């Protein structure tokens, strides 16, 4: 089969790789219908995360089950399934509490920019759609594997409730879907922080009521202006830099929550600032598996269309162009068809 391998910063190639095989009796093999490039893949592409050896890359997937191991009971060949980037048993105490990305048996599902993958703990990890989807639903279903599940978790972790004022830091695909999630959860006012016109448009389409293009002190001052000096009830941090975390913290009202889902790079929050802010922080790798049944329902019934964040569709062979386009911010998110 063909699959993408990263060799070095700026060097992702599609090459012939071994077909995935059932190794454990709890595995499933999925024939990929669509996959995509994640903002976090760009950390490798840019050389911020070191690439020490050629590594299969990609962690977002959906597709048709081709084969299952002898212990798999709920997932069956022929089903269209979506799963998280961390496989989970969905039975341990952390899974039961809804934090499947901290599963005691979690395994990263890598190498998904490929024609097929092996998914461990198939019964715990994968959720099937009611039937194989129409082609136009596939981008939205794919988004549930990470980007939409992560935007949703940011809103959930920030405790978004009906009537709230929510600010979203970051206008990448996760931030934009954080806007959509906050709107769906009943936020009355949603302030999207974005400097890019095409992204501002999509944020507005997803439910943003205000756009703030300033950053840093000016950005915080604008949020305060828009909230009568109070700050936002909930802030979704979808970048992961020290600047964005600081901005999120300072934009939140005392008693409010920050949901942070950008993978931190160089974040150092002073304890004293945290102490006097009275702001609650919760985040981490999104427990996408918790949200999959509800989000599949929302997509299936046409209530949300998170697949709109894919503004570039390429064949798997063109994967490097997907990375380049996202790195240069020519594309919000690239979808790949094997
Ligand atoms: Zn578990």
What is this structure's SSE topology?
Blueprint: E1 2-8, E2 11-16, E3 28-36, H1 41-45, E4 55-56, E5 61-68, E6 80-83, E7 86-87, H2 93-96, E8 107-108, E9 116-119, H3 122-125, E10 126-128, H4 138-143, H5 147-157, E11 165-169, H6 173-184, E12 189-193, H7 197-206, E13 210-212, H8 216-226, E14 232-237, H9 242-251, E15 252-260, H10 271-277, E16 280-283, H11 288-300, E17 312-315, H12 319-327, E18 334-337
The chain binds zinc ion (ZN).
Zinc ion is lined by residues 88-89, 91-92, 94-95, 103-105.
Please provide a written account of the structure.
- With 338 residues, the protein is of the alpha/beta class.
- The protein is 30% helix and 26% strand.
- The chain is built from 12 helices and 18 strands.
- The chain has helices at 41-45, 93-96, 122-125, 138-143, 147-157, 173-184, 197-206, 216-226, 242-251, 271-277, 288-300, 319-327, and strands spanning 2-8, 11-16, 28-36, 55-56, 61-68, 80-83, 86-87, 107-108, 116-119, 126-128, 165-169, 189-193, 210-212, 232-237, 252-260, 280-283, 312-315, 334-337.
- Strands 3, 5, 6, 9, 10, 17 and 18 form a 7-stranded mixed beta sheet that branches.
- Helix 9 (242-251) links the parallel strand 14 (232-237) and strand 15 (252-260).
- Helix 6 runs parallel beside helix 7 (197-206).
- The longest helix has 13 residues, at 288-300.
- It is globular.
- The chain binds zinc ion.
- Zinc ion binds at residues 88-89, 91-92, 94-95, 103-105.
């Amino acid at each position: 089969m063909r699959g993408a391998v990263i060799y070095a910063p700026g060097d992702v190639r599609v090459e012939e790789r071994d077909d995935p095989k059932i190794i454990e009796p709890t595995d499933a093999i999925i024939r990929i219908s669509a996959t995509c490039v994640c903002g976090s893949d760009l950390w490798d592409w840019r050389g911020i995360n070191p690439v020490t050896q050629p590594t299969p890359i990609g962690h977002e997937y959906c597709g048709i089950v081709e084969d299952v191991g002898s212990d798999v009971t709920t997932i069956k060949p022929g089903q269209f399934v979506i799963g998280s980037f961390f496989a989970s048993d969905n039975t341990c105490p952390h899974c039961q509490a809804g934090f499947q990305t901290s599963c005691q048996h979690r395994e990263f599902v890598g190498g998904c920019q490929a024609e097929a993958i092996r998914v461990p703990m198939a019964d715990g990890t994968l959720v099937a759609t009611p039937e194989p989807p129409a082609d136009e639903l596939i981008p939205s279903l794919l988004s549930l594997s990470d980007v939409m599940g992560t935007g949703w978790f940011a809103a959930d972790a920030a405790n978004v409730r009906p009537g709230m004022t929510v600010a979203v830091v970051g206008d990448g695909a996760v931030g934009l879907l954080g806007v959509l999630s906050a709107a769906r959860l009943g936020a009355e006012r949603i302030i999207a922080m974005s400097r890019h016109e095409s992204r501002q448009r999509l944020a507005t389409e997803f439910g943003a009521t205000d756009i703030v293009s300033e950053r840093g002190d000016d950005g915080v001052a604008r949020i305060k202006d828009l909230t009568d000096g109070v700050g936002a009830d909930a802030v979704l941090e979808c970048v992961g830099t020290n600047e964005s975390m600081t901005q999120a913290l300072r934009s939140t009202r005392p008693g409010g929550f920050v949901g942070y889902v950008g993978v931190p790079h160089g974040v150092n929050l002073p304890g004293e600032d945290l102490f006097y802010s009275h702001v609650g922080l919760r985040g981490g790798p999104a427990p996408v598996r918790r949200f999959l049944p509800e989000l599949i329902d929302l997509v299936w019934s046409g209530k949300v269309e998170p697949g709109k964040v894919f503004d570039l569709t390429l064949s798997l062979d063109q994967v490097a162009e997907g990375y380049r386009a996202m790195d240069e911010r020519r594309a919000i998110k690239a979808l790949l068809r094997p």
